Amino acid sequence: MTTVYCTEGGVRLDVFLTDETELSRSHIKNLIDGGRVTIGGVTAFKAGQTVKTGDEVSFEDETDNYEITAENIPLDVVYEDDDIAVINKQRNLVVHPGAGNKSGTLVNALMYRFGTLSYMYGAARAGIVHRLDKDTTGLIVVAKTDSAHASLGAQFAAHTVQKFYRAILDGNLKDDCGVIDAPIGRDKKNRLKMAVVFDGRRAVTKYRVIERYKSNCYVEFELLTGRTHQIRVHSAYMHHPITCDVLYGGKYSGVNGQLLHSRFLAFDHPRSGERVQFTADEPSDFTDVLNSLRAVR
User: Distance between CA 150 and CA 95 in Å, rounded?
Assistant: First the structure.
């Protein structure tokens, strides 16, 4: 069983699950028609049923039957206790198993490193509270217990988790700071992409320029919502895609993956309630590009 939280309601069930997963809308409809989707534990039979803020939407799919094995994949563990762990995720690492990625994921690595994880939403997503794209580096929090998972999930749903990212963009943004408030949904022409679309879900991103170069800028982003590919989509929407993000039109600059890094994460600890925060510096391939840009500006 896979479960996802609805952080902003008022959307159709099939649209919500399509946006939150890699599954097609027709596949989602088949799951709904087959009685394999629930909202708050109650079976949903209508694709057009409205999902509300705070709803837990669960579904059964092929990944629920995967046999997940522990794999000795190196991890940079920033913090660990009995309830949670904070990982500085490397590039080229998928977060959880799915179609085409049944091994070699962060979940496989977590099983080897910690053994005990939250299985609240099945083995394929053991410990996973939120996601980072395969080639996005940086901080991600994982849950070791179901109670920690529930607490963190509720905080993400309530938008009380602070998330700051750093990125290098092609070109220079006109303003030094600003807010992008543009709805995001699945791209109508390419299912691998998300896009700003009129019928998408509200997505809000704050930004500030840290440094400017001849043909690029170094930018900090704060996510106020958590849509799939949100920073990548909003950057491209401003006509300044993330450098090396070829999916969204970024120019290649020697790194195989977008130069986007989850640098800061803050939330209330699930057990103590104390506000905790973590920071991770950009990886060496990111800083190498920065240094090259600084040398010619």
Answer: 19
C-beta atoms surrounding 116 within 10 Å: 12
H or E element: which one contains 285? helix 284-296
Q: Is 199 a catalytic residue?
A: no
- The end-to-end CA distance of the chain, in Å, is 52
Catalytic residue among 83, 133, 170, 245: 133
CA atoms of 139 and 214, how far apart (whole Å) = 29
Given pLDDT bands bounded at 50, 70 and 90, which one contains residue 15?
confident
pLDDT tens for each residue of 45-67 = 898 899 988 888 888 776 555 67
Rg, the chain, Cα only: 19
- Contact 149/129 with Cβ under 8 angstroms? yes
| The residue type at 244 | C
